[in-house]
Amino acid sequence: MKRAYKLSGEICANCASKIQDKISKIDGVNDASVNAMTLKFRLDADDDKFQDILAQSVKIFDAIEPDCEVHVH
Fold this sequence. Notes:
Oligomer: single chain
Structural class: alpha+beta
Number of helices: 2
Number of strands: 4
Strand order of the largest sheet: 2-3-1-4
Distance between the termini: 15 Å
Mean pLDDT: 97
């Protein structure tokens, strides 16, 4: 399953890179990208694990860059 999410708040390119790297290492993630310029987070992960992976990803955002919010609909 592939989804894209809007980000709000502040995030620098360095933090975006760290977040992307950590999310990419989660079991079940096929691809992840965090773009600090466009404030977008794209996640491609196994369908059966997607919601759990998304929750883990949001926790990673909160831990590394608490001023950035992922808008999960």
